[in-house]
Amino acid sequence: MKKGFTLIELLVVVLIIGILAAVAVPQYERAVEKSRQAEAKINLRKFVDATILYGLATGNTTMDLHDLDVSLEEVSTASSTDRYIETENYKYYIEEFACDGNESNVGECVDICADSLKKDYSICYSGPHYDSWAGEFTCMGNAQTCIAVGAKNNKFPN
């Protein structure tokens, strides 16, 4: 009597592994994207806090993230002449029109955004004296992504 597996048994095992992979891979991709979004939200809050401290220390506002005392892991491209900081997953920048007409609290009427480099969405976080969405996350992109980010104010594309 020969010992071993028949071709049918091997095909059944391969089929089961394929079904499990088909279920597990999308869940894994969603978990990775949620961790990227959490990273962006944490960094956005760091930048807003640093902008407020910069305003208190200097009495000025800045449009250059390099002026702020914030260190990010995995900064891929950063030039002292650029007004943005790019990591592996996001491009962070200060929205330059956020403080128009609200400059009484220098550095606090800030809106800092992170554009996803791998997906098509942006997350923004507004400082405490920003008129429209003070202390809230906003999102521009598809509805499912913005809901996953947990943005209170979603700006979905038309």
Describe the protein's architecture and organization.
The model has no long low-confidence stretch (mean pLDDT 79). The protein has two helices and seven strands, in the order αββββββαβ. It has a seven-stranded mixed β-sheet. The chain is elongated and about 90 Å long. The chain has helices spanning 7-58, 143-149; strands at 75-77, 84-87, 90-94, 111-116, 121-126, 137-141, 153-155. 37% of the residues lie in helices and 20% in strands. It has one domain. By secondary structure, it is an alpha+beta fold.
In a nutshell, what does this entry contain?
The chain has 158 residues and is α+β, with helices and mostly antiparallel strands.
Q: What's the β-strand tally? A: 7
The global form is elongated
Structural category is alpha+beta
Q: How do the helices and strands follow one another from N- to C-terminus?
A: HEEEEEEHE
Average of per-residue pLDDT values: 79
Largest sheet: 7 strands, mixed
| Total tally of structural domains | 1
What's the N-to-C terminus distance?
69 Å
Strand content: 15-25%
Strand order of the largest sheet: 1-2-3-4-5-6-7
- The count of helical stretches stands at 2
Report helical residue fraction. 25-40%
Radius of gyration: 22 Å
Residue runs with pLDDT of under 50 for 5 or more positions:
none
List the helices and strands and how they pair.
Blueprint lengths: L6 H52 L16 E3 L6 E4 L2 E5 L16 E6 L4 E6 L10 E5 L1 H7 L3 E3 L3
Parallel strand pairs: 6-7
Antiparallel strand pairs: 1-2, 2-3, 3-4, 4-5, 5-6
Descriptive labels:
2 helices, 158 residues, elongated, seven-stranded mixed beta sheet, 7 strands, single chain, 37% helix, 20% strand, alpha+beta
